Amino acid sequence: MITIKEIAKLANVSPGTVDRVIHNRPGVSEKTAQRIREILKEHDFKVNRIAQSLALKKKFTIAVMLPGYDEENQFWKSPLEGIHKAGEEAMSFGIDVKTFAFDQKSPKSYVDSFGLLLKTNPQGVVLVPTFKKETKELTQILLEKEIPFIFLNIALEGHDNLCFVGQDSFKSGYLAAKLMQLCLNENDDILTVHSRSNLSNVNNISKRIKGFEHYFKALKLKNTNHKIEIEDFWDAKKFRDKITSLPQEGNEIKGIFVPNSRAHIIAKHIEDFGNKIPYLIGFDITEHNSNALADGKITFLISQKPFQQGYQSVSGLSKFLLYNTPLQPDILSPIEIITKENLPNGQQKDYTIFPSL
Amino acid sequence: MITIKEIAKLANVSPGTVDRVIHNRPGVSEKTAQRIREILKEHDFKVNRIAQSLALKKKFTIAVMLPGYDEENQFWKSPLEGIHKAGEEAMSFGIDVKTFAFDQKSPKSYVDSFGLLLKTNPQGVVLVPTFKKETKELTQILLEKEIPFIFLNIALEGHDNLCFVGQDSFKSGYLAAKLMQLCLNENDDILTVHSRSNLSNVNNISKRIKGFEHYFKALKLKNTNHKIEIEDFWDAKKFRDKITSLPQEGNEIKGIFVPNSRAHIIAKHIEDFGNKIPYLIGFDITEHNSNALADGKITFLISQKPFQQGYQSVSGLSKFLLYNTPLQPDILSPIEIITKENLPNGQQKDYTIFPSL
DNA sequence: ATTTTTAACGTGTGCGCACACGAAAATAAC
DNA sequence: GTTATTTTCGTGTGCGCACACGTTAAAAAT
User: Fold this and answer.
1) Do A348 and B334 touch (CB under 8 A)?
2) Which nucleotides of D are covered by protein (CB under 7 A)?
3) What fold does the segment set B57-167+306-333 form as a domain?
4) What's the CATH number for B169-303?
5) φ, ψ (nearest 5 deg) of residue A230
6) Mean pLDDT by 10 residues, chain A (357 residues)
7) Cα A116 to chain center, whole Å?
8) Most CB atoms within 10 A, among A12, A235, A323, B313?
9) Do B319 and A49 touch (CB under 8 A)?
10) Is-same-fold flag (B57-167+306-333; B169-303)?
């Protein structure tokens, strides 16, 4: 790796001048700049990021705001771990990551958390834009303060966010449908179980459902898809009632589609369906889902690499702040198909990075 | 992040002394060492890897030896790209990665390449142990020279390699069987197409076949699996002959299992099977396979994240050399199920690292 | 032609760490 | 008590880069 000093010697100038050329700083005559640029290219000069980080010694604070998790809803555990991992590694680069959790069901806590967030004077923000109206207000503030921000997991449009890190939900629903079709025969019925879409109609779950339905429509398949809506997934009786009240002229339900991360609950409910247990397709490798999959109660899980998403949101923003590396507008994680047979043993923390500890 | 200098001030000693304690170097009285250790722990001191790499300025050469690739067999392209990517990033850390390609079918070129490799005086080696007997000799040399080495893609046993980076091939074959079963009805027949296992019987492909067969055996399924062996996959006539000469009393072949990366060729051959095209399951996202999958000629591809594997082999070895970070004996990449619907657009280079360019 | 301004470039320092070297203190040898 | 030896510790330099500052040369103003 050739150094600035060496380049300087080759060009008969001082390191400072080479530095100016590299960073397009003023104060260099076009003639010598040209010469230096040629030498740089000739020797394929690349800045030593290590030395650069050390010299820059910039101090950045990245604030991350995401829903909390509990025993009931574990989805956000994994992204948070990815965020922490990236934070650890970014530390050496002078980046301080602070996280703020809010209640997924409370717009007030969403806004309140944002207030706390602002107090840390972040130079960059990662946001899970759970509430549409409130998000508009918050991003307005960020834009005024010229704080760059990126959206994680939920792709809200028209907010001037730097980028979106998440999954193509429509596509994943479409994929679920494909898998479902592979399992079923031509005339088997399908059941889609979802809860009241309490947030916005642009959210991931409704996109999954749309993708799912689109597959069957596009391929002109004639399987009937019964959609039921349940508020409390744990209410087994309600679930049973809904099922039995479906139109009687239908065929047998051979497949169940659960477009959220709580397929394991439905798995429990259908355990006592007798010997004709239907195929079950759900989302996200939470601990509960993972267990149900391992027990054979769930056929497929579709995973969106939440750890990786958390990691990428922070690492991407870090790179942007440190090196002005532009981010691609959409960072979509691969859509993974998980079965009992390829379920990863541990958590998916397969993201090993160099300067890690 | 607290620095050595700050710790030194707190302990009323010089930075040099703190440095000695951190690295367990001699020359510090036990009394002061104790005191410093306490302060280190109290402030949760972590060395700044960035500054460390810069100061260390170690020079390591990592030599990688793997099969070449061509239009015909593109499998090794992706690992090589992963290796290059890791090499680029490791460069700032003073690591120089050199790659050597050999002919997959020629033990001689294998040994010859190794000769060239040795001339670079590497401090670490990544090896794809394609030939069993020769590998024993080569690793013997490495052991004598005390050069640590790791195996990539092929898990040869009993060679004192630092670790193995690759896939659990048995498991991936098992998974293929599961997917196959989901597609088929109870009495459908299966065709397994493989080429002469020219290398060793411990290789990945035979493991895949074993895993595949084990699934059906373990679940006591009664689908018949016809196995045919073809030397030249491109020979359509031979393929057709083999098919037609299968026992007539069998049921219809509804699924084809190709345990290598050339399913796309079989896909071509079965195109003119008429309207009853069977399900096809193959391995690895090469360009050809990818196209065949997109065209709907292949049902499933099972991928082993070859880019990631290449990347991890080099990054893992780098960490080991730089920081003595121990490596886990087996680094198994996730087994991915790829369908037309979740096929990644570009190459799978989703491994973004911090100090990258 | 002299001064003032500006453009063009060189120099020096520090980021946090590793390590060589040398100084001081403690101990041993006599 | 003096010298020799060893232990214990401090100092200084450099890794490659960014950037502030100072210096020189060129251009502009007078």
Assistant:
1) yes
2) 7-12, 14-21
3) Rossmann fold (3.40.50)
4) 3.40.50.2300
5) -125, 140
6) 91 93 91 92 90 85 93 86 87 87 92 95 94 94 94 92 92 90 88 74 82 92 90 86 78 89 91 76 93 93 90 89 80 84 62 39
7) 23
8) B313
9) no
10) yes
